[in-house]
Amino acid sequence: MGAWGITALESDEGLDLVAAIEDMLPRDTLDLGELMTKFGEDHFLYDGTVLALAELYIEFLEKGRLDYDHEEKVRSLTQVRAFTADRISLGALLEHLNVIWTDIEGDCEGDLAELWRESPSWDEWRAHVQQLIAKLDARLAQEQ
Q1: CA distance linking residue 126 with residue 113, whole number of Å
Q2: Could you read off the pLDDT of 17-39 as tens digits, one per residue?
Q3: Which residues pair with 31 in a beta bridge?
Q4: pLDDT higher than threshold 80 for residue 144
Q5: I want to staple 39 with a disulfide (CB 3.0 to 4.6 A). Which of 45, 63, 114, 123 is the partner?
Q6: Strand 82-84 to strand 29-31: parallel, antiparallel, or no bridges (unpaired)?
Q7: Are 79 and 28 in contact (CB under 8 A)?
Q8: Alpha carbon of 18 to those of 37, 40, 63, 112, 135: distances in Å?
């Protein structure tokens, strides 16, 4: 699976996403809608990417910064000073997470849920996904 923790950002796929975002950093602001559109166009918006985007957005909300720095790169996520998201983007991200949750609670037919179900960290991963959903749901409620 290429993961060393339960979060999407603790995986090879998560680091690929961080690198892809860093490559597109012309400024110090990230926008959730732009990221989802970009990765959707590249067919990169799949379960792990959705989870990683949620993790990055929530981390920025909670800490006011992103702690992903690649010393060899000129641009890194530590340079991000704002992470914007409108109601539509938050709703779309939450909808993607709820699809993942439905798979978790169902037959685990999706690749990611199936991999985690076979892992000894299944319960912790499920709790993490549920926590992401709760935090995004709360953020969306604040936006009303």
Answers
A1: 9
A2: 888 888 887 678 899 999 998 88
A3: 84
A4: no
A5: 45
A6: parallel
A7: yes
A8: 16, 15, 17, 19, 21
